[in-house]
Amino acid sequence: MSDSLDAQMRDEIDDQVAEAFDAYLADRLAEPGPLRASLALRRSTRLVLGTVGLGVLATALAPDGSAAVCWIWGAITLINIAWLLTARRP
Fold first, then answer.
1. Residue 61 near residue 55 (C-beta atoms within 8 A)
2. Cα–Cα distance, 68 to 5 (Å, whole number)
3. What sign does the CA torsion over 76, 78, 84, 86 have?
4. How many CB atoms lie under 10 A from the CB of residue 51?
5. CA–CA distance, 70 with 57 (Å, rounded to integer)
6. Mind listing the pLDDT tens digit for each residue in 10-46?
7. Model-wide pTM > 0.85
8. Burial of residue 55 (number of CB atoms within 10 Å: 0-12, 13-18, 19+)
9. Cα–Cα distance between 5 and 41 in angstroms, integer?
């Protein structure tokens, strides 16, 4: 009888832990991340498209095999990452 009661208690505890874990995961998934927050800002799209457009133009105008192309795209990457990280601040 006591083994049956222990098994029943363990099942109830497992169910409660699973429900709490599911609720925790649902809350975490509902929180906006940095990408979602930056996409919600209208001007972030303009910034990303503007930097990529300038990068394409600079790449087209750069001499062949130029190291400047690497520097240009590196700068664009840093700008976009910095914008993404600052966009998630309230």
1. no
2. 73
3. negative
4. 19
5. 14
6. 888 888 888 888 888 777 767 666 655 555 555 567 7
7. no
8. middle
9. 55
